[in-house]
Amino acid sequence: MPSTKSIKQRIKSVKSTAQITKAMEVVSATKMRKSQQFALAARPYAVASLEMLQNILTRTEKLPPLLTTREVKHALLLVVTSDKGLAGALNANVIKKAEQWIEARRLEGVSFSLITVGKKARDYFLRRDIPIRESFTGFGDFTTFSQTLPIAQILLKGFQDGQWDSIDAVSMNFRTTLVQEAVVKKILPATPEGLEDAVRGILPEAGRFAASKLPRADKSPYRYEYVLEPSPEILLAAIVPDLIRMHLHHIILEANASEHSARMVAMKSASDNARDLITSLTRGYNKVRQAGITRELTEITAGKEALEE
After folding, report:
1. Are strands 132-136 and 111-117 parallel, antiparallel or unpaired?
2. Domain range for residue 63?
């Protein structure tokens, strides 16, 4: 049976841990609310831009190179994780999705490259000797457009130069505070079906902008006859890169919101477990202490009886 001293030391240690996890929970909750505001505020713009592109595509057959589907000989995967841990299974779920994507490309006989965002993805794939084309870290808690712009430029240039015939991104999509899901999204080439899937992935599950309320492509709310000047090719060539940059930026904003939400939930769970453990240890301490008192009383009584005999 453990001594009262060792149990008291364990209680003290658990209390210190609980103070740390509680503080991290409060910090994560604050960051979560701010990152959610960033992600939710960007959603209407992301949805409007993707729907606008989707609508224009239904009215022209002339597509710019960024929207032209070609035979996939080399694919690229953008893996978005966090720089820090203590976020539950968030990073593990993203990496699991990435490994499934890699396995699918190997079965298809397609060569691939990786670009990672966050230390967790970079370190994981480096340990497994999977080549990484580029890696980006240190984006901070609230990513700005200027930070994601270099990533978008690399993707756009690589696709236009023919380095990659297909570009996907795997990241966490923020659904609710308690629910985040790892998803694979098509970045390039953009197709009407892919754009609709992207819009549905951005929209929340319930509320005013719920995905269930989004009309199908053949029932688009836009009924305008566009007059495209100087030409559809030139306009789309100018618009599409900006929309792709916005789409990529929103993916990383969603990942930020998911990270802070997952860390807050993980720290809350750790704090609750610490309180339960403290209660259990305190109960065990009282039992050991009472057993010691009973033993001492028994010894005193036995000694007194021995003296009287």
Report:
1. parallel
2. 29-262
Are residues 43 and 199 in contact, defined by beta-carbon separation less than 8 angstroms? Answer: no
Structural domain total, the chain = 2
For 25, list phi and psi in degrees, rounded to 5.
-65, -45
Same domain for 183 and 252? Answer: yes
Query: In 10 A of CB 93, how many CB atoms?
Result: 19
- 70 and 107 part of one domain: yes
Amino acid at 14: V
Task: Specify if 307 maps to a domain.
Answer: no
């009282």: which residue's tokens? 286
CA angle, 270 as apex, 267 and 274 as ends, to 5°? 140
Q: Looking at residue 122, what is its pLDDT?
A: 94
265-288 pLDDT, tens digit each: 888 888 888 889 988 888 888 888
Measure the CA–CA gap between 249 and 158, rounded to whole angstroms. 18
